[in-house]
Each structure stands twice: as C-alpha cells, then as structure tokens.
Amino acid sequence: MESSAIFRLSSPPPSFLTTKPNNTKTLSQTPWKHRTSLPTQVHCNKMFVPGFGEASPEAKAAKNLHQFFTYVAVKIVAAQLQSYNPEAYKDLMDFLDKHSLDDGDKFCADLMRESSEHKSLALRILEVRSAYCKNDFEWDNLKRVAVEMVNESNTKVMRDYVQETSH
Question: Where does the sequence pass through the membrane (predicted)?
Fold first, then answer.
C-alpha cells in the first residue's frame, strides 16, 4: 500500500527540506554564538508573576491542593473507619493528635512507619487521596468558585473604599 505522505528516495526532496544558498556573509561559523544587541522579546498573553523563584503560581497552588487532598483523604478514611472499625479509627485519631497534617507526605510516611496496622491506614489514605484528586474533585467548579470569589471581593473592597471616601 503506497501513501502520498511517504517520500520516494528516487524523487527530489520536498522544497521545505532543501537548503537555500546563503549569499550573505556570516560573522561566525556558529550561529548560536552570534549575539545581537537587540533584546529578545517574548510575546505572551499571560501575566508575568515575579517573585515565585523556583515555581510558578500554579505550581504553588498545586502544592497547596496536594496538602489539602491529604487532609480530605484523612477525613474520608476517618469517617469510614468510625462506622466499621472503631479500633482503627481510634488509632488514626491518636496518631493525628501527635502528628501534624501540615505536610501530608510526611504525615503518611510517619504513619506508614508506625506499625503494620498504621501502614495499612497510610496506604488507604494514599489510595483515597489519589482517587479523590483524579475522580471526585470538581476542577471546573474550583475555577468557577475562585473567579467568583475574586470578583466579589474586588467589588466589596472597591465599594467599601468609595463609601469611606465619599462621606
């Protein structure tokens, strides 16, 4: 079966593959070392956000969501355990009293190393965290709610300022 997208070796190469002769003299044989005095301008429709160092604002938000998903997973697992395994629920609550959920990965790693019973709790939390993030979290709703919150708070701040300054 012959395809028109495949080039025959005997036919001349397509025009976009052939190089055109360069009649201008170059300053250097290595064009990547040649510098111009004009700055390179990047055309982008997004805002530049300074001061975030190694990560973008989205990466920082993702990190916070990652921590939040751990918190949600712990709440889900705790609610499940409370109804069908009160002993494991008590173990999880005791562990929560002694360990912070500020760093979800550290919390799960510490829980996993506590004992074999705690290891199964940690694995369940990891499983629920992943499933919640992939299947249950409403990403579109997050964007809608965040935009609404920003618009409402901007309006409130501007309204309050106008009221303060007009009296």
Answer: none
| Of 63, 36, 58, nearest in space to 47 by CA | 58
Around 138, how many Cα atoms within 13 Å sit in the side-chain half-sphere?
5
C-alpha closest to that of 138 among 79, 87, 69, 90: 69
- Closest by CA to 36, choosing from 44, 23, 47, 27, is 27
How far are the Cα atoms of 7, 56, 57, 69, 108 from residue 50, in angstroms, in the given order? 48, 9, 10, 27, 33
**SS3 for 61?**
helix
Question: Which CATH number describes the domain made up of 57-148?
Answer: 1.10.1200.210
Confirm if 103 and 71 have CB atoms less than 8 A apart: no
Neighbour tally for 112: CB within 10 Å? 17
Q: What is the mean pLDDT of each run of 10 residues along the chain (167 residues)?
A: 41 45 50 53 67 79 94 96 94 95 94 93 96 94 96 97 91
User: Which tokens belong to 157?
Assistant: 């701040």
CB of 86 closer than 8 Å to CB of 79: no
> Is 78 within 8 Å of 97 (Cβ atoms)?
no
- pTM beyond 0.85: the answer is no
